[in-house]
Amino acid sequence: MGKLKIIFLGTSSAIPTKERGLTSIAVRRENELILFDAGEGTQKALTYARLGLNRPTKILISHLHGDHCLGVLGLLQTMSMAGRDKPLTSYGPPKFASFIKSSIQYLAFGLTYDLTIHNVKDGIVVEEDEYTIFACKAEHNRTNYAYVIDEKPRPGIFYAEKAQKLGIPKGKLWSNLQHGAKVTFKGKTFTPDQVVGPRRKGLKIGYSGDTRTNAKLVKFFKGCDILIFDSTYSEMHREKAKENAHSTAKDAATLAKAAGVKRLILTHFSARYDEVDQLVREASEIHSNVLAAEDLMELELPYHD
């Protein structure tokens, strides 16, 4: 497994600006793409980011507000027009599936690939060999889910010199040992612990959608390496944040610190702020590792080796 990469496709809140498109975050794991939300114009941002339209893809929608979900329709249609042939799976809150299916019918465009849509509820959303995606109901004025990608432990470091010293030939036997299987060669049985180090911790990435902060989310995001969190407002608009069921940058930082998050990424900025330096300063008073997302910013995450 190589490095995991996060690409910020859109970082504005409800109103796009010249510099910021509507919300969408892409996580690339090798050839797979995991997309959190898809505001209008997401397919254009994907093209600019050179992420392609025919790779294995999962789309996870936090809630049914336009700046988080309307871009799904354009993305689905663009993928078809580009000749996509790989199946696509999407996940979202109740009524998301009916919204997509009825919109496709009304707009009268066909798909060149199989589309599966699942309703989300608290708990496990996706279970793969290498990672699990969890959902947690957040606190907004519409049904809204936060998500976590939690990678499973990876195989330990394989020590080739130890294998060579034991006389184990390079190839399939090495691979089997690295993946936890015993092997036999010339009547001798070898176990992984003879040539492989301890399993290595995977990465944990959290994404909030729109939300107020609460104790439930602190627990949900516990120990995240990266937390991408709603930071719509600065402290000068704290009452507006409460009124609209959003968070301030300081709220996000307070939650991240309580959850032991290693790095906090602020996003979903109100269009009222030409610059977001003030929001970063407010968050940095609470959390020591804060970064403001920008459109098309790429963040590579090294593993715990």
3D structure, described in words:
This protein has 305 residues and is an alpha/beta fold. The protein has 2 domains: 4-154 and 200-301, Metallo-beta-lactamase, Chain A (4-Layer Sandwich), CATH 3.60.15.10; 160-194, no CATH class. The chain has 10 helices and 16 strands. The chain has helices at 42-48, 66-69, 71-81, 96-107, 160-166, 172-178, 215-220, 238-243, 249-258, 277-284, and strands at residues 4-10, 24-29, 32-36, 57-60, 88-92, 115-119, 123-127, 131-137, 145-151, 183-185, 188-190, 204-207, 226-230, 263-267, 290-292, 298-301. The strands form 3 sheets. It has a 7-stranded mixed β-sheet with strand order 6-5-4-3-2-1-16. Strands 7-8-9-12-13-14-15 form a 7-stranded mixed β-sheet. Helix 9 runs parallel beside helix 10 (277-284). The longest helix is centred in the first third of the chain and has 12 residues, at 96-107. It is globular, with a radius of gyration of 22 Å.
